[in-house]
């Protein structure tokens, strides 16, 4: 089942960006642009996580957060607060508003996605597997550790996220553009050749003994985690 995320944010450019990137991660996304409307919505149905802006028309994010924490049904609801630089005060830093996490704008999309994923896993560990495996490759999301045939492998953050993304979608072919969108996030302009560079690095790291390459290059299409590999592994 897809996790449902409610985004409460009044900046249209940001809601577009959040919707696009969260949907690309296979979340169901609802957007509400006013604090008071979000309050009403959350009395009707409770999502799995809320991304909540601090400054909102109708009712502030802080006040909404306080109200949600006061209701038994939403006491445990995972909340990530968005705050603009400058609004960031001791109050939000100490998370005394009741938010589980906060992110300062402008933020990087991969950072936000990582926080969303971490919070969802913490709230409902049964929903998201913490250990992903494929053949003799094992990736432990809680410990952020990767191993091949039981031997630990050190990956940089981008290579780690690339491998995690491939493991989440074994056998599916992704174009360079799709990989850029899903792994790097759409707000950053990066040349598509960057994808090749990082795939090259990941391949080198994951195949220390020139073992079987789990990543397949699909000519003219992109890259995929080789599903034949799993049967062999
Ligand atoms: Ca705002």
In a few lines, what is going on in this structure?
The chain is an alpha/beta fold.
What would you note in describing this structure?
Helix content is 40%, strand content 22%. It is of the alpha/beta class and 233 residues long. It has two domains: 4-125, Response regulator (Rossmann fold), CATH 3.40.50; 131-232, Orthogonal Bundle (Arc Repressor Mutant, subunit A). The strands form three sheets. A five-stranded parallel β-sheet has the order 2-1-3-4-5, sandwiched between helices. It has a four-stranded antiparallel β-sheet with strand order 6-7-8-9, with helices on one face. α2 (35-44) runs parallel beside α3, α6 packs across α7 (176-184) and α6 (157-168) packs across α8. The longest helix is centred in the middle third of the chain and has 15 residues, at 109-123. The chain is elongated. Calcium ion (CA) binds next to loops.
Strand content: 15-25%
Question: What kind of sheet is the major sheet?
Answer: 5 strands, parallel
Structural class: alpha/beta
* CATH level-4 homologous superfamily of the largest domain: Response regulator
So, CATH architecture of the largest domain?
A: 3-Layer(aba) Sandwich
Strand order within the widest beta sheet? 2-1-3-4-5
Q: Categorize the overall geometry.
A: elongated
Query: How many domains in all?
Result: 2
Percentage of residues assigned to helices: 25-40%
Task: Count helical runs.
Answer: 9
> What order do the helices and strands follow?
EHEHEHEHEHEEEEHEHHEEH
Radius of gyration: 19 Å
